[in-house]
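Predict the holo structure. Ligand: S-adenosyl-L-homocysteine.
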Amino acid sequence: MKRLHLISFGCQMNVYDGELMASAFKRRGYARSDDPADADVILVNTCAVREHAEEKVFSHLGELRRHKKTNPALLLGVTGCMAERMGREIAQRAPYVDIIAGARSFGDILDLAAAAKDGTDAVISIGHDRPPPDRDVSVRQDPYRAFIAVSRGCDHACTYCVVPNTRGREKGRPLDGIVAEVKELVADGVVEVTLLGQNIDSYGKDRPEGEDLHHLLHACHAVDGLKRLRFVTSHPEDMQVEIFDDMANLPKLCGALHIPPQSGSSRVLKRMARGYTRERYLDITHEFRRRFPEGEIAADFIVGFPGETEDDFEQSISLMHEVKFQQSFIFRYSSRPGTPSGIHFEDDVPLPIKAARNMRLLKTQEAISRKKHAAMVGRTYEVLVEGPSKKDKSVLTGRTRGNHLVHFAGSVDLAGELVDVSVTDFTPVSLRGAVAG
Ligand code: SAH
Ligand code: SF4
Ligand code: F3S
């Protein structure tokens, strides 16, 4: 039997796309292999959002190359956003790569692999929207939780971001197909579904039937057997506060938002072309908390955006204090070729300053998380049990509706169940607890 080894970097959308490619190979009779040494096809599914991520891929490819010595028939492919962005440049820097298939263009990955087998040059597919392969719902990382892409691409033009270039214009999937996928997943044991879009709030804007996120949430919520529903990523410019009413009315829908502010300074937000101010961002989070005092908000921040002053940065710190995020993903600005800020703005914040700002935001978030977690001690939360903890197999791990990671003792038979856990202790990154009752 032939084997596929696939590694995905980047966001959940990329992981999902990896699963679509793996589905195609599975239908062709391929098994999955964790070990690149015994694979017939290796796919490195890449991210282009920061330069560092791309450099890591080249060193990884350099390592994978040695498997071609023991298996000359091995096909090595680069897929995802970096493939879409760089195309032929990858073949120039790593001439031993056989397949280059971009994030919009991997729909016929099996044909590309077949063509690569017969040729000597790399087979390149970029720059055209190909419908992705159908999903085989059994191909997924987690037995109980699954992601579903509901739209692809992005119509925003945040000045720092490559995604509009790599994934193209926003394109929503038909609602019926998404609901059918939820049903199939649930029939296969999934209890929590997260709907994915680069900008989930504008789902449906290009759909002829006029469906939108509100309709989509209701339709997915109605699927019997589904226990929890989430959606990411929200964009503050497109977020409709009416969605918070859905969160209140639909019990399976978790009160957790991932809505990246990127910066707390309106001046920087303007240069990022984000389309909102600090005040508008705060209004949205206040509306959310007004309806959900227990609701949780997760953030992305970029530090060291061109022209970011000490005062601008202090405003990101103060936004963090004001909103009290459940979790923050913090990135140092990376100038990307072909993006508006890459072309027009000088990357003028020195690396040591970026690093220091990154560290300060991390420390600030850590202090907030600590306080939040301390306030949860002694209270009981609904937890979806994922299974034994990766680090300590003697305890179970799961998440609250607000996305807090919880460890607690219990039988592995609880995996996939919703249980009430009372919180007894905490670290900045997780909670400890005991099954209640
Ligand atoms: N569609 C999502 C996420 C896009 S990429 C959204 O709009 O929110 C994920 C995160 O990477 C972004 O939220 C941003 O914080 C970060 N990012 C994107 N481009 C970046 C760059 N050039 N440098 C540093 N971080 C970047
Ligand atoms: Fe990138 Fe902005 Fe689109 Fe997000 S909304 S994918 S940050 S351009
Ligand atoms: Fe995702 Fe990275 Fe592409 S964040 S959309 S894989 S550039």
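The first strand starts at residue 3 and ends at 8. The pocket of FE3-S4 cluster (ligand 3) is lined by residues 10-11, 13-14, 47-49, 80-81, 103, 162-163, 166-167 (CB under 6 Å).
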